[in-house]
Description:
The chain has 6 helices and no strands. The mean pLDDT is 84.
Amino acid sequence: MTRASIVTVPQYLIAVRTMHGVGVTEMARVLHVTPSVVRRWLRGTLVPTWRRLKGMTTLWGGDPELLALGAALQRYCRATGVALEDAVRMVRTGRRTGPERKPVARARDRRQLTLPMQR
């Protein structure tokens, strides 16, 4: 039994570009978005909506639910700061919370204060 790997949107778009030989401008034209939006999807700085994901998988193949899971994990990682590998591990193990992160300690102010001295 093989486990299906979770596919993020950038991984999917890179695979589509490789397999189908489609450029960024052609993808943008077919999906009715600007090329800069497709570039942001490729970088992972923007995550497409469910409707766009279904459109992508209709055009180029793939499982829309699996791609939507990857997109949801991308959104979760951006909102919480958890690494994608940790988020995938949480999904696979069924844990509800992320790894414990230590709060960042504030730097101590070590400047010397002058105190008024009485004689």
